Amino acid sequence: MLNIRGFTLLEALIVIAITSILISAAMPSFQASIERYQVRSQADRFLSIIRLARVTAIENLQKVRICPSINQTSCDSSGGFNWRNGFIVLLDAADDGSFSQVSQVTGSFAAANTIDLKDNADVTISSLTFRSLGVLDGITSATFEFRMPNCIGATNRDIDIGFNGNASVSTLDC
C-alpha cells in the first residue's frame, strides 16, 4: 500500500483564507507604522539640518538662515511659508543681510505632511536665523511642527529650538 503525503486542495484553500484574514487585519496598523516612520525620519532629518546650520554659524562667525524655498536657490518670498516644497540653508558671508547659499543643503518633505515654523507666541514665521554665537536671531524660541493628516496615536513631531540654539524633537499625540 502506498502512503502519499501532502495537502489536499481544501486544506490549502483554508490556510490561504486564514492568512488573508490575518493580513487584512494587520494592514491598518502597518499603514500607521509607515506614517509614524515618515514623520519621525523627516523630523530627525530636519533636526540634523538645524544643527548643521547652527554649527556653520558658529564655525564661520556669521549668521545662517534656514528658509522655505521652491527653487532651492533662494528663500520663498511669496509669504506662503510652505516648508513641504523645500528649504535652503543660507550664509550671510558679508554680514550685511544678503544671504547666499551655504552648499547643497536643500531638501523637501512628503507632500502629505503639514510643516509650520512658529515662534514662542505661536505665530507662523518665515525663516530661522542663527547668529554667529549659535543663538537665535530675532526670536526667543521656535518650533517646527510636523503634522500628519489622519494620524493615529503618537505620530506628530515638534522640533523645539531654544534661544541658545539647542534643538530637540518631541513626540505628540494627534
Written overview of the protein:
Helix content is about 30%, strand content about 25%. It is an alpha+beta fold and about 170 residues long. The protein has a four-stranded antiparallel β-sheet with strand order 3-2-1-5, covered by helices on one side. A hairpin with an 8-residue loop joins strand 2 and strand 3 (about 100-105).
Describe the structure concisely.
With 174 residues, the protein is of the alpha+beta class. The protein has one helix at 9-60; strands at residues 64-68, 87-91, 100-107, 114-119, 128-130, 142-147, 156-161, 167-172. The radius of gyration is 24 Å and the shape is elongated.
What's the overall average pLDDT, rounded?
81
Radius of gyration: 24 Å
- Name the beta content range: 25-35%
Structural class: alpha+beta
Fill in the keyword field for this structure.
single chain; 174 residues; alpha+beta; four-stranded antiparallel sheet; 1 helix; 8 strands; 26% strand; elongated
Topology record:
Blueprint: H1 9-60, E1 64-68, E2 87-91, E3 100-107, E4 114-119, E5 128-130, E6 142-147, E7 156-161, E8 167-172
Antiparallel strand pairs: 1-2, 1-5, 2-3, 4-6, 6-7, 7-8
